[in-house]
Automatic annotation (TrEMBL):
Transmembrane segments: none annotated. Belongs to the leucine-binding protein family. Keywords: Signal. It comes from Pseudomonas borbori. This is Amino acid/amide ABC transporter substrate-binding protein, HAAT family. It comes from the Bacteria. The keyword Signal applies. Residues 1-21 form the signal peptide. The keyword Cell membrane does not apply. Residues 23-369 form the Leucine-binding protein domain.
Length: 412
């Protein structure tokens, strides 16, 4: 008995020593304020859960992991400055962001400083396409992946429809519009009209002008390629104008937070995409995914969003690469990540070698009716999955990627 007690004391002592060692720092740049602050909250929660899980298991390389955070306010220059601040504080990796401009700008600065950068809510093709490089990895899906699953579903169920697009005039907005037009056969702008909102500081009159133009068209499908507060304001105004009664509304990237902010009644019947929802672990028989959902509910009293899942997965995957390479060196971690296949919060995923895009299944989803939502114990069961596409079918091919890159055919 005394020997068992001694062994337990030694083990506890080792664990205590590991958590008293110099921490391994990682930096999360995310919006605490601005257009995407609600999504930022989800990113922060997911990151904290991953760090807590790692530290409760003894840390990493015998050291605890410490999460550093800074507000980006969804601005590219802020994100770049955050990377520099994290580097001065000794961070070994940076992740986050809620726009593609953030990912591109922050990722470039991270490369100059020798740090890996993992993009979260950054959907423009350019992130891992024309602007991609060795030190940048993207966990979220691309605009093309969303467009392909939506295009296939709409082609099967709503063929030969007239479209109207309202986009935010930024990298992602232009990217998703281009891809959706291609996958739905709505490239003819004379037939399928559009309006573009300013990328920052859009006003109520901008939203109304765009919606009145859509209302005056003969469109049967209204695509709102918007995110965050822009989407919330536009959806409420569209509902007040009654556009939902005469058009099928498509929101390419849906999230729990936007349904909560705009309201289930306003969002009812809207179709979009997600790379993960809280129902996916049960559907795809993922014990780790279900444990994440259960733990999130226990801590926060609500279901996790895909943003939380993305941040959690990034931290866990980076930590896994550190363990497998037994190193914090960025080059060794790149080698450990490239072509790595894994399952964590859903079915199989892969960090692709040639572009560092995470290849994973993508889902078309529809917002349930308010009466259906209210039957759920947490009253947050917002989405039904209406279509699914494998990551291999949805992601850009190597040949198309090289065509986009021109003469720059490998990551540097």
């Amino acid at each position: 008995m005394a020997r068992i007690t001694l062994i337990c004391c030694l083990l506890l002592g080792c664990l205590g020593n590991s958590l008293q060692a110099e921490p391994i720092k990682i930096g999360l740049s995310y919006p605490r304020t601005g257009n995407y602050k609600t999504e930022g909250l989800e990113l922060h929660r997911g990151a904290l859960m991953a760090v807590d899980a790692i530290n409760s298991s003894g840390g990493l390389l015998g050291r605890p992991v410490q999460l550093l955070t800074r507000n980006s306010a969804s601005r590219a220059q802020n994100a770049r400055n955050n990377v520099e601040r994290f580097a001065r504080q000794g961070a070994q990796m940076v992740f986050g962001g809620a726009t593609s401009e953030e990912a591109i700008t922050a990722g470039k600065r991270a490369r100059q400083l020798g740090l890996l950068y993992f993009a979260t809510l950054s959907y423009a093709n350019e992130v891992t396409g024309r602007e991609g490089h060795r030190y940048l990895f993207r966990e979220s899906n691309s605009a093309l992946m969303s467009a392909r699953v939506l295009g296939e579903y709409l082609g099967w169920h709503m063929p030969r429809q007239r479209y109207h697009y309202i986009i935010v005039d930024d990298t992602w907005g232009r990217s998703i519009e281009s891809e959706l037009r291609a996958t739905t056969g709505s490239q003819d702008r004379a037939r399928h009209g559009r309006s573009a909102l300013p990328s920052s500081s859009a006003l109520r009159r901008h939203y109304l002008d765009a919606l009145h133009k859509a209302a005056a068209s003969d469109a049967e499908i209204l695509v709102l390629a918007l995110l965050g507060e822009d989407l919330r304001h536009t959806m409420r105004l569209a509902h007040n104008l009654g556009l939902h009664t005469r058009m099928q509304i498509i929101v390419p990237h849906l999230s729990k937070s936007i349904v909560q902010q705009a309201g289930p009644k306003v969002m009812q019947g809207v179709i979009g995409t997600e790379s993960w929802t809280w129902q996916i672990p049960a559907q795809e028989k993922s014990p780790a995914g279900q444990a994440f959902v259960d733990d999130y509910i226990r801590q926060h009293g609500e279901y996790p969003d895909s943003a939380a899942a993305s941040a959690y997965s990034i931290v866990q995957q980076w930590a896994d690469a550190v363990r497998r390479s037994a190193s914090l060196d960025s080059e060794k971690l790149i080698q450990a990540l490239e072509n790595h296949r894994y399952s964590l919060l859903k079915g199989p995923q892969q960090w692709r070698t040639f572009d560092h895009q995470n290849v994973q299944s993508i889902y078309a989803i529809r917002v349930k009716t308010r009466s259906q939502i209210m039957q759920d114990p947490l009253k947050q069961d917002y989405f039904e999955i209406i279509h699914q596409m494998s990551g291999e079918a949805a992601a850009q091919s190597h040949d198309d990627w090289q065509q986009e890159r021109g003469e720059d055919l490998v990551l540097h």
